[in-house]
Each structure stands twice: as C-alpha cells, then as structure tokens.
Amino acid sequence: MVQATVFLLVLSLALGAHSLSVEKCNLIGNWTNDLGSNMTILAVDEKGNFAGLYNTSVADHPNKIQQSPLVGFLHLTNPIDQPTFGFTVNWTFSEATSVFTGQCFVDKDGKETLKTIWLFRRHMNTTEDNWAGTLVGTNVFTRLKKQKE
Ligand code: BTN
C-alpha cells in the first residue's frame, strides 16, 4: 500500500514536471521573424511584464545595427493559452521607436507562432515632415532552433 502510494506520488510529480516543460506561449526564449530579425525574451514576471533584446536584420538608418532593448506585457491567462501581448523596442543606434502587438498561436503539432503588427516611428525634424514619420507592417515570429556548437 505504501509502495503504491509512493509510486503514484512519483508518477504525478513526473507528469506535473512534464506538463510544465511543454508549457507553450510564455514567450521566454529566442525567436526569429520573416525578415531574419531575432529577439530574446529574457523573463516574464507574475504580472506579465517582460523584457528582452532585439537584433533587427534590417534598418531604416545608416548607422551600424546594434542590439536594442525591449519591454512589454504578456496578457496572462490561466492556463497560458494563446495569449495576446505587446512590446516596445527602443532602438539604440537610431532615434526611432517600434511598437509591436500580437498573439501567440499554437498549432496542432505544438508549434508556436507569434503573429504581430508593428508601427515604426522614425525621428522627423519638422511637423511638415511628420506625415512621413511612421511605417506599419507585420512580422511572424517562430522559435529559433538551438544552434549546434
Ligand atoms: C531603425 O531603422 O531606425 C531601427 C530598426 C527598425 C527595424 C524594423 S522594426 C519593424 C521591422 N521588423 C523588424 O524585425 N525590423 C524592422
């Protein structure tokens, strides 16, 4: 009887650990998009605040591209199931800012996809030029496969 109880306890702990390890859409990790840009979400706190780093593959600015910080919110649901999110990238090599909003989807094979829309705001010198200051577009992100060493 004791042995059976211990066995069931170990089994339930193992299953619990497994379900945690396959939890989807918590955003933490490395992602790549359809332009070849990469981003890393470093941490998501208990309120859904997150921070990370963005390496864009393209730029509107002639300066050398540098890794730039991002901060955002993940809309936490319980369980985490295809949540919406938003984040802002503060470009460190140009006087520009980008905001992204989107949703994490999981397909039948468990593959996660971040479908996003973004606004990119570049610095303009005058209000007359303001009309040309903003671009809009979409990006699709998938998890970056681990590189072999
Ligand atoms: C700049 O050009 O001043 C900063 C880089 C902007 C990169 C944009 S943000 C939207 C789009 N998605 C990307 O991954 N990169 C571009």
UniProtKB/TrEMBL annotation:
InterPro entries: Avidin (IPR005469), Avidin-like_sf (IPR036896), Avidin/str (IPR005468), Avidin/Streptavidin-rel (IPR051764). Keywords: Biotin, Disulfide bond, Glycoprotein, Secreted, Signal. Coiled coil: none annotated. GO terms for cellular component: extracellular region. Pfam families: Avidin. Its main location: secreted. Residues 1-19 form the signal peptide. The keyword Disulfide bond applies. Disulfide bonds join 25-104. The keyword Nucleus does not apply. Forms a strong non-covalent specific complex with biotin. PANTHER family: AVID PROTEIN-RELATED, AVIDIN-RELATED. Homotetramer. Belongs to the avidin/streptavidin family. This is Avidin. It comes from Pipra filicauda (Wire-tailed manakin). The lineage of its organism: Eukaryota, Metazoa, Chordata, Craniata, Vertebrata. The gene is LOC113991762.
